[in-house]
Amino acid sequence: MHSKPLPLHSLKVTVWRGFTAAFIVGPFFFEEIGPSGPVTCTVNRTRYESLLRTQIIPALKQRGCVDSAIFLQDGAPPHIATPVKELLNLHFGNDRIISHYFTTAFQP
């Protein structure tokens, strides 16, 4: 009798991807390295802020559009944490963010 092989990756994926009219940013996967390799992890404010600071904002700066991009996100708790809101305001200004708890709210 043959045993069923174990999957190479978790059956769950937590990923962030952004897009503009001209290009796609990402995908970026939320993973941690476990004893048997990458494991999907929960998105919390620390991980989300780190992704914005180290990957997303630099990618937009590299493309020369961080000063004109409009940032859209829903109101998931990691998206509206105070450090995340401060970081987004720093780079996009309150008038170029569409999200809950900002001037322009994300519509359900």
Based on the model shown, name its key terms:
single chain, 108 residues, alpha+beta, two-stranded antiparallel ribbon, two-stranded antiparallel sheet, 21% strand, elongated, RNaseH_sf, nucleic acid binding
Provide an overview of this structure:
Helix content is 27%, strand content 21%. It is α+β, with helices and mostly antiparallel strands and 108 residues long. It has one domain. The strands form 3 sheets. A two-stranded antiparallel sheet has the order 1-2. Helix 1 (45-62) packs parallel to helix 2 (82-92).
Strand order of the largest sheet: 1-2
Query: What is the global morphology?
Result: elongated
**In DSSP terms, counting alpha (H) and pi (I) runs of 4 or more, how many helices?**
2
| Main sheet properties | 2 strands, antiparallel
**Oligomer class:** single chain
* Mean pLDDT score: 88
Number of separate strands:
6
Q: Termini, distance in Å?
A: 51 Å
Q: How many separate domains?
A: 1
N-to-C order of helices and strands: EEEEHEHE
How many whole angstroms does the radius of gyration measure? 17 Å
Q: Strand share of the residues?
A: 15-25%
Structural class: alpha+beta
As residue ranges, the low-confidence spans are none
* Helicity, as a percent range: 25-40%
InterPro entries: RNaseH_sf
Protein name: Tc1-like transposase DDE domain-containing protein
GO molecular function, one term: nucleic acid binding
